[in-house]
Amino acid sequence: MIDIGSGGGSPAIPLALALDGVGLVMVEVKTRKSVFLREAVRELGLADARVVTSRHESLLANTSFHEAYDLLTIRAVRVESRTFSALQTFVRPGGQLFHFRSGAENQPILPPPLRLAAIQPLGVHPQSQLVILQK
Fold first, then answer.
1. 2-134 has which fold?
2. What residue ranges do the domains of the chain occupy?
3. b or e along 108-133 (b: 16 or more beta carbons within 10 Å of the residue's beta carbon)?
4. Residue 64 gets which letter from DSSP?
């Protein structure tokens, strides 16, 4: 699993804890937040987790990230069609992208090969949604 814009670690860390043994890469551009994430990983004993301090755009040039993940999560990041086009590079064929978003955001046009699999409401706020995309 790869989490883009990991910030404070949600949803990546709770998912990694729930999916015992899942490999996790958290991508965070801000050094201060990356340091926090590394400490959280150490304290929680998440042996299969690592933090990369980088913009996701910079990782596109690194072929070891291409189609390397079954699941990509993204939250609290404004996502446009070109963003999805770039992010799908990290996901294996048949993998999924979980976009945690506010329902007030417009759903961008999905670039091939992505398709909408489901939209699930989250919590008591109807504006909070999990948009599940399939590659």
1. Rossmann fold (3.40.50)
2. 2-134
3. eebeeebeeeeeeeeeeeeeebbbeb
4. G
Alpha helices in the chain (DSSP H): 12-18, 31-44, 56-59, 81-87
Q: Residue 91: is it exposed, middle or buried by C-beta count within 10 angstroms (0-12/13-18/19+)?
A: buried
Structure tokens at 50: 């690592």
pLDDT digits (tens, 9 = 90+) for 39-97: 999 999 999 999 999 999 999 999 999 999 999 999 877 788 889 999 999 999 999 99
DSSP element (H, E) containing 131: strand 128-134
pTM as predicted = 0.91
CA separation for the pair 26, 48 (Å, rounded): 11
Q: Which tens digit of pLDDT belongs to each residue from 96-125?
A: 999 998 766 677 789 999 999 999 988 777
